[in-house]
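Recap quiz, item 2
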Amino acid sequence: QQPVQSPQAVILREGEDAVINCSSSKALYSVHWYRQKHGEAPVFLMILLKGGEQKGHEKISASFNEKKQQSSLYLTASQLSYSGTYFCGTESQDNYGQNFVFGPGTRLSVLP
Amino acid sequence: EAGVTQFPSHSVIEKGQTVTLRCDPISGHDNLYWYRRVMGKEIKFLLHFVKESKQDESGMPNNRFLAERTGGTYSTLKVQPAELEDSGVYFCASSFSRDEQFFGPGTRLTVL
């Protein structure tokens, strides 16, 4: 099943923080995060594996709560370049490597 | 409304053989994208069609891969001859504007 992302959309002022959540009804093996800018292909941000990882990428970090089957993407001190649609992709444990599903996306707009 | 569909869901072929993957986008979507995920790695962009024209094919790995979209409707991705490293999940996505993409379920390709 497709993971659920929240919020569907968020508007920020430059410098503000945001959190994007991704949750699944299935036990997860991994969570992937991607950002897609208007008219471009998605760009890979990071993969988190089961075990409760937390990773950082500049001012963008993410956590993965395996027990809750949730992942959160944290955007700190947002920049204009952060605008885009953020997708999580989940890989379930019961069929590892064969069940990768993208979420519907969260549209982030950062205003000056 | 039907979503993006891909056929087959799983294909197993031997090295050197040819395989053709098909993607049917959502009706009315001019933009069609192909992506590939190799086991354990992130999803990588392959190419982007706008109607029947290749807008961006910078992600195509080599000339063994040929994508077509005759008539601007469904698209095919042919791998000829297939190599072991071509194994993975091939995703197709479509969009109406150059914005939110709707992903298909993927085709798992196994090259033996």
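DSSP finds no helices and eleven strands in chain A.
The mean pLDDT of chain A is 85.
End of item.
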